[in-house]
Amino acid sequence: MMAPEEIGSIVAGAVVDSLLDASVLQAFFVFAGLVVVTGGGIITLLIKLRSSRKKNDENTAATLAEVTDIKEHVANEHSSNLRVDLDEKFDAVFKRFDSMENKFDEHKIEVSDEFRGIRRDIGQLRGDFEGERVRIRGVEDSAAKRRRAAQ
Prior knowledge:
The chain is an all-alpha fold. It folds into two domains: 1-77; 80-151. Helix content is 92%, strand content 0%. The protein contains three helices and no strands. The longest helix has 69 residues, at 82-150.
């Protein structure tokens, strides 16, 4: 039987041999490379997030200053809400547009009736001209017959 010291040295040698095996070393370096690349990406992401947060804080402060300025311009010494005033003005404008639209529709109906009358008159003139053409052809035909008979 073997002594425990001999077994330990054999096991230690086998572990060292397996660690020095090329495929194990290659796998270790691939893993180490992945850890470095991933860690670098995470660090870059954290830096960008921190920078973005600073910009957002600055933008928020600037926006707050602008809103305060706008509020001062809108709310200074008005007895009523500016929104209500604007709504009333817009309602008045829309009523005027509706009134103008109704007048336009009435005028459009009148103009349409006039055009219908003009078309009717033109149709009657066409009929009259066609009647005159038929009458003139009849006169021409009878004159032509008389000429042939006279010859």
